[in-house]
Amino acid sequence: EVQLVESGGGLVQAGGSLRLSCAASGFTLDDYEIGWFRQAPGKEREGVSCLSSSDGSTYYADSVKDRFTISQDNAKNTVFLQMNSLKPEDTAVYYCTAKRWPTTYWGQGTQVTVSS
After folding, report:
1. Measured between alpha carbons, how far is 44 from 102 in angstroms, rounded to an integer?
2. In whole angstroms, what is the distance from residue 19 CA to residue 96 CA?
3. Residue 65 contacts by C-beta under 8 Å, 6 or more apart in sequence?
4. DSSP assignment, residue 78?
5. Residue 22 forms beta bridges with which residues?
6. DSSP letter for each residue of 41-67
7. What are 52-85's pLDDT values in tens digits?
8. What confidence tens digit (pLDDT) does each residue in 8-50 have?
9. Would you call 24 exposed, middle or buried from its count of C-beta atoms within 10 A (0-12, 13-18, 19+)?
């Protein structure tokens, strides 16, 4: 069965850090473009970061640049999102994705709540 399972979310104070994990099963992550998205209550889902499988290049939304880092551990078939200097506006459900045309897999999401 193909699955993406996120973990690592929780409640943290502003300025704190969290590391989200996204474990894949049923397929190999290094063949896919990896992404993290988030959705806050009442807002549209937005792209946070992505990692290209072809050349290892990364992308970060302006709102998280210099604070978040995406990485991948192929041995563990897992993707990470290290989030530092968290702000209340980072509060959202975070989803990981794995994309290889024409397929995109989504995880179930993990809640991140940043208190002020």
Report:
1. 23
2. 13
3. none
4. E
5. 6, 79
6. TTS--EEEEEE-TTT--EEE-TTTTTT
7. 988 889 999 999 999 999 999 999 999 999 999 9
8. 999 999 999 999 999 999 999 888 999 999 999 999 999 999 9
9. buried
